[in-house]
Design goal:
The complex is a heterotrimer of chains A (65), B (124) and C (917). With 65 residues, chain A is mostly helical. Helices cover 66% and strands 6% of the residues of chain A. The chains are: A mainly alpha (65), B alpha/beta (124), C mainly alpha (917).
Chain lengths: 65, 124, 917
């Protein structure tokens, strides 16, 4: 597909990264008791990983290659 | 008063031959081994003629010639360039810089002496 | 404060405010100064994805299984990462073809098929209906709950309430009126509803603020922050289990995965999402910011879900209160009246947003893709003769809106109690997911055909209906429960919730697996059975290649035939009005430099295409095509002709691509040529340098030889001492000259590869010893000491004996030349290293400047040109030595510090016995 320029490829990679981050087995790793700054580990992981993904997407989009 | 000649040349053997020839013709001869020394001796020794080798360490013969010609006090100093390069453009470059004569190596001793005599006419 | 009339008043005030925003935006749009032309507004409008389901239902789900609500928002985030390619394509296509709806998009791709458009519309309506009733349920429930303040009472069974006292009924009516006001005030040629978009963006803000407000209040008002909240949850055994919800079965992950996939598809194919993302988009570039702003919004609105859920569970133990209502009942329980009211408005906002956009989108589909094509075909209605159809179109749309909302209410009344909010919504998600294969396949795969799309949609929808909707009906009592437990007619393998024995999955996952299998299988299978027709092929090419083509507004012209211009004009005017039609023609004239196209009796293909495009913007591509076809006496294009046109077009593309490649290659070749030329010039210059240097080097000893020969000749009476001296000079210079000539020849042979090499096994130790002996005279003359460090035995190396002798000789003579007479010390070391022999020749002479160290191996270069006066030697020795050493695979280098002597080293590889066998 010729329409997959650099940004498209990077974003597709981020999509794959997201699929990995938010699935078994990584979820199993964080599925433990305990808390990070008072927040349960799993929850903290979700929101931090999510925020990270969004930040990376913003970076890829806003940087001109 | 005998004419003073400065030889600016770094090859010792060539220096030796030139020295012999010129002293034999009763010129007062000094030797400089490189461009800086040559300029110093022009100032101090005040030669009438400078035999200038083009290929010298440090300042090249062309530069020395330019210096000499750039100094109005040395207007009357004759400059004869010696060079292993004998192409026309080199000759013209030398003459353009203000040299009075240009001799290519290897030179004929007779021809060299003749040119020197031309540049330094005998006292009346 | 929370009395009934206050709530009603506030609600109406809020709706009025929304309307004002919409009105203002519409006004500005008409004046040409759009307010929504901003990526931020665009991104906010996309947040219509978050409905009352998000507002209330997420907390409800979170209270059951912790993070189970998250895939619904993370999935879209992941899909949005792919939007850069996928959505840009869809946007480009939709702008080019003036797509008016999702059904229009799919229909248009598969040859402007009215049938397909109709099927998509029907599926969409049936699928979304539960979703609409969900919103009504949310508004009605929240209203009821708030009314009970200060008591907290869950709404009783609603079926019992008579119609006219049913809040939900009135909500449905009000929303219908509102939507009609919003979306059908006039007919827009491009189906833009700027007012609606502005209002939606506004309400996205409202619901976000409201949710964060209540979330923050729960976290820091009731409890002491998240740490406190979660710590207390961990203390309760039932709650603690939810903190790690994935314990046990890996099967719970499969549900997770499918939920993610489902949401990824929903964000694309929910009619309201398609409407705001594609149809209402004003500028493709807004997509850039939306790609990360919209996920950010979703993150923000979900941040407090878990705190609120756990807060509620802690606050209302033992299930007296539905978790769906925590957002509202928590502030109520704590007497926070203002906050509760704000929450109610927030929920109202979320619900109204969804309903407005969804019903506008659906009503457009019903009008353009379901009703109009049927009406147009019914000759009995003689619609071709009506002068102005715009009123009819609007009427159909308004009717559709009312119809949808009433139907939504009906569903709510009859079936709304069966499931919690979230489950209802997911059923709708699964329905719209059926559009994915046909739509996504359509923009990437040229081979997808109309029949394939129909087959896929049909199969997928059938499975969806059977596995999700039927069970819902059964649970509500419309169908016997025996259907679920034993299968239809007792056939166990066809149990709706466990088809073919695949059990143990939740209903959504189960439905998704089977419907997607059926859908994709049918789509691909049937598409491959028969090749696409002419119309399909051309549409397919336009869609799939849209990003690769230049952005020209039309496509290749495919109309061939003539149309009488007045008829064409009237056709257009019938749908868009006289004024708009005139403007369309004038615009065409401007762009093509024609005077008055309506003056020409016959319209050319371009104009016909232009009119069709305009028309498509109002009634959809399929209907537009029908209408225009009825006017144009078209010469039917056969499949071959279309293929030929396509081939030509694609050949042109290929050709221009090749041209581009050629020109690039040409440029590269030119650059290479230029570089080669530079290199040649450089080499030439070097050669000139070499020649002139050689000439200079040769002339220098010649000068002395000639001069002194002449002197000796002309001065026969010279003293003996002087004669001897001069003759010595002549002899020395002759030797020097000879050496020089030899070396120059050597270098020349080495460089041109003509040198002769005679290899043998040599003992380096012997070579060194011999060379030391040969140079002993030199050492004596300079009064220098020589120290040797040679091992007793070394392995042999393969090399030319004479050449290596030359090398060692060169190094030794250099060393002895440079040391101070009397104090000189030269050390020769021979060592064996891994695979190599290494020779070091160290002297304690003046050393070599780092700058010179690179240079002394070059031709005619010597060290110490300025410092120590002109050394003897030609400057070629080291160059030759290094060449020789390198020829045998060794290295030569120098290490030295100025003032501390120099050490020249070289290596030679050891002989390999086998090599010389």
């Amino acid at each position: 597909m010729g329409e997959f320029d650099v940004r498209g490829q990077r974003l597709a990679a981020l999509c794959l990264l997201g699929l990995l981050l938010f699935n078994y087995p990584l979820l199993a790793v964080f599925n433990v008791q305990g808390a990070l700054f008072g927040v349960p580990v799993l929850y903290a992981y979700f929101f931090l990983a999510w925020a990270l993904l969004i930040a990376l997407m913003a970076l890829v989009i806003e940087r001109r290659g | 008063m005998s004419r003073k000649v400065l030889i600016a040349e770094d090859e010792p053997n060539i220096v030796a031959s030139l020295e012999f020839l010129l002293r034999q013709s009763n010129y007062d001869v000094r030797v400089a081994r490189d461009g800086e020394e040559a300029l110093r001796l022009v100032a101090s020794f005040a030669p009438h003629l400078v035999l200038l080798d083009v290929m010298m360490p440090g300042k090249s013969g062309f530069e020395v010639c330019r210096h000499i010609r750039g100094n109005p006090a040395w207007r009357n100093v004759k400059v004869m360039m010696l060079s292993a390069k004998g192409r026309d453009i080199d000759v013209n470059q030398g003459l353009a810089l203000g040299a009075d004569a240009y001799v290519t190596k290897p030179f004929s001793t007779k021809a060299l002496l003749a040119t020197v005599r031309e540049l330094l006419p005998e006292d009346a | 404060m929370l009395q009934g009339w206050v709530i009603v008043l506030t609600s109406f005030a809020y709706l009025g405010l929304l309307f004002a925003v919409a009105y203002y935006a519409d006004r500005r749009a008409d004046a040409g100064r759009s307010v929504i032309d901003s990526p931020y507004i665009y991104s906010l409008s996309l947040a219509v994805y978050a409905t009352a389901w998000t507002f209330y239902g997420s907390v409800g789900r979170a209270a059951v299984d912790g993070v189970g609500f998250l895939p619904i928002y993370i999935g879209p985030t992941l899909m949005i990462a792919l939007w850069w390619v996928v959505m840009r394509k869809i946007l480009r296509i939709s702008k080019q073809h003036r797509i008016t709806s999702l059904a229009d998009f799919i229909a248009s791709r598969y040859g402007k098929s009215a049938l397909l458009g109709g099927v998509v519309t029907v599926i969409a309506v049936i699928g979304i209906l539960p979703y609409i009733s969900l919103q009504l349920k949310a508004v009605s429930n929240s209203f009821t709950i708030v009314l009970q303040y200060p008591e907290i009472v869950m709404p009783a069974k609603l079926g019992a309430v008579p119609l006219l006292q049913d809040t939900a009924f009135w909500v449905a009516l009000i929303l219908a009126a509102f939507t009609i006001l919003f979306g059908t005030r006039h007919l827009d040629a491009a189906e833009h509803h700027e007012g609606m978009v502005a209002a939606i963006a506004f309400e996205s803000l409202v619901k976000l603020v409201a949710f964060i407000a209540v979330g923050a209040w729960v976290s820091w008002g009731i409890y002491n922050g998240w740490g406190d909240l979660f710590a207390r949850s961990a203390a309760e055994p039932k709650l603690a289990a939810m903190l790690t919800p994935f314990d046990g079965v890996a099967g719970s992950y499969s549900g997770w995965v499918w939920l993610t996939i489902l949401s990824m598809l929903a964000i694309m194919f929910l009619p309201r999402q398609f409407q705001v993302t594609v149809i209402e988009n004003k500028d493709e570039k807004h997509l850039n910011k939306a790609i990360w702003l919209f996920p950010l919004y979703m993150l923000a609105i979900n941040l407090f879900v878990l705190p609120i859920a756990f807060g509620g569970l802690l606050h209302f133990p033992e299930g007296g209160v539905d978790a769906d209502t925590f957002v509202l009942t928590l502030p109520m329980a704590e007497k926070q009246e203002l906050l509760a009211l704000a929450v109610f408005i927030g929920g109202l906002s979320a619900a109204t947003g969804m309903v407005i956009v969804e019903t506008i989108a659906l009503s457009t589909m019903i009008c353009n893709d379901l009703v109009m094509p049927v009406l147009l075909r019914l000759r009995a209605l003689r619609l071709n003769e009506q002068p102005d159809l715009s009123g009819l179109l609007l009427g159909i749309r308004r009717g559709a809106i009312v119809f949808l909302l009433l139907l939504g209410y009906l569903y709510f009344r009859l079936a709304g109690e069966a499931y919690a909010l979230v489950s209802i919504g997911l059923i709708s998600f699964a329905a719209v997911a059926q559009f994915a294969p046909a739509a996504l396949g359509g923009i990437f795969w040229m081979g997808g055909t109309r029949l394939g799309a129909l087959a896929g949609l049909g199969a997928g929808f059938a499975v969806w209906f059977y596995t999700l909707l039927l069970p819902a009906f059964a649970r509500s009592g419309w169908l016997p429960l025996g259907l679920l437990e034993n299968g239809p007619f007792g056939i166990e393998l066809l149990k709706p919730l466990a088809l073919f024995g695949v059990g143990g999955l939740d209903n959504i996952t189960h439905a998704m697996i089977w419907s997607m299998t059926a859908n994709i299988g049918a789509y691909v299978g049937v598409s491959l059975l028969r090749a696409p027709g002419a119309e399909e092929t051309r549409q397919a090419s336009l869609f799939v290649d849209v990003l690769r083509r230049p952005a020209e507004p039309g496509g290749p012209r495919f109309w061939r035939g003539t149309a009488p211009t007045p008829e064409l004009f009237n056709l257009l005017a019938r749908f868009v009005g006289l004024a708009n039609a005139a403007e369309a023609f004038a615009d065409y004239a401007r762009r093509h430099g024609q005077e008055k196209p309506e003056a020409h009796p016959e319209a050319d293909a371009e104009l016909v295409h232009h009119v069709e495009t305009q028309l498509a913007g109002v009634i959809g591509a399929a209907s537009a095509h029908i209408m225009v076809a009825s006017v144009v006496k078209e010469e039917a294009l056969s499949l071959e002709e279309v293929r030929a046109m396509l081939d030509e077009a694609s050949q042109i593309i290929v050709y221009s691509h090749r041209l581009e490649q050629k020109s690039q290659e040409l440029e590269r070749a030119t650059q290479e040529l230029r570089a080669a030329n530079e290199r040649l010039t450089e080499l030439d210059r070097l050669k000139d340098d070499f020649v002139s240097t050689v000439s200079h080097e040769l002339r220098t000893p010649l000068t002395s030889i000639r001069a002194f020969s002449e002197i000796l000749h002309d001065n026969p009476e010279l003293a003996v001492a002087e004669r001897t001296r001069f003759l010595n000079i002549v002899i020395k210079e002759t030797e020097r000259l000879t050496r020089l000539i030899n070396q120059i020849l050597d270098v020349s042979k080495l460089e041109s590869g003509r040198a002769e090499w005679h290899e043998s096994l040599i003992d380096l130790r012997e070579v060194i010893e011999d060379t030391i002996a040969a140079t002993s005279q030199l050492f004596k003359e300079r009064d220098a000491r020589l120290v040797r460090r040679l091992p007793a035995e070394v392995p042999k190396v393969v090399a030319d004996l004479d050449r290596i002798v030359q090398v060692v000789l060169n190094l030794l003579s250099n060393a002895v030349k440079f040391v101070e007479p009397g104090r000189g010390l030269v050390e020769v070391t021979l060592t064996e290293e891994r695979g190599f022999l290494r020779v070091d020749v160290r002297d304690n002479g003046p050393g070599i400047h780092p700058a010179d160290q690179d240079v002394i191996f070059d031709k005619f270069r010597q060290a110490g040109d300025t410092l120590t006066g002109k050394p003897q030697g030609s400057g070629l020795g080291l160059h030759i030595s290094r060449r020789i050493v390198e020829h045998y695979g060794g290295r030569m280098w120098v290490s030295s510090r100025a003032g501390e002597g120099a050490c020249f080293s070289f290596t030679l590889p050891l002989a390999r016995e086998a090599a010389l066998a």
